[in-house]
Amino acid sequence: MTEGVTSEIPSDIPSDAGVLRLDHVAVAVRDVRAGAALYGDALGGRFLFGGDNDHQGIRVAQFALPGGMKIELISPLRDDAPVARFLERRGEGVHHLTLLVEDVEVAVARLRGLDYEVVDVNLDSPHWREAFVRPRSAFGALLQLADTTKRWDEPAASGITLDDVLAGRVVFTEDERAVLRENC
């Protein structure tokens, strides 16, 4: 939808997208260790969780900054990972904004109904369901819409450290848990 706000929204489109809050800003980095030095050490961010998503080919580390804002660092583990292509084309920087919604299917229906381009809808996991609004539909920003059954604003209870993540000893399981690789 590029013509501005529509005053008459068809009745078959949900009344709103059910946005709960901005969950985090994801920053693409070539090296999570370098990003952690800024967002953790220099800015006082508290490490929350992280690990490797072998399916997507990325390493993730998330930090809570003072005041509650969260930053997620993502870096590629292999050359064919989408974030590797992003870094090649655009360099390091903001990759996406994640909005938590009540129900991702409702949010997708609303946005598609209003002619926004929504892609990569993944409803496979009950713990993290997501979809993306393409940057050309979102004024240059990649938006991730997600609903979840888990708390992502608290440190992982498993005792996993940032050093474990940086060393590649942590992997996300199918049910979105970060575990030490030997415990998979």
UniProtKB/TrEMBL annotation:
Keywords: Metal-binding
Record keyword Iron present: no
Domain VOC: 21-148
One BP annotation, GO: L-methylmalonyl-CoA metabolic process
Example GO molecular function: methylmalonyl-CoA epimerase activity
Name used for this protein in its record: Methylmalonyl-CoA/ethylmalonyl-CoA epimerase
Pfam families from the UniProt entry: Glyoxalase_4
Coiled-coil annotated spans: none
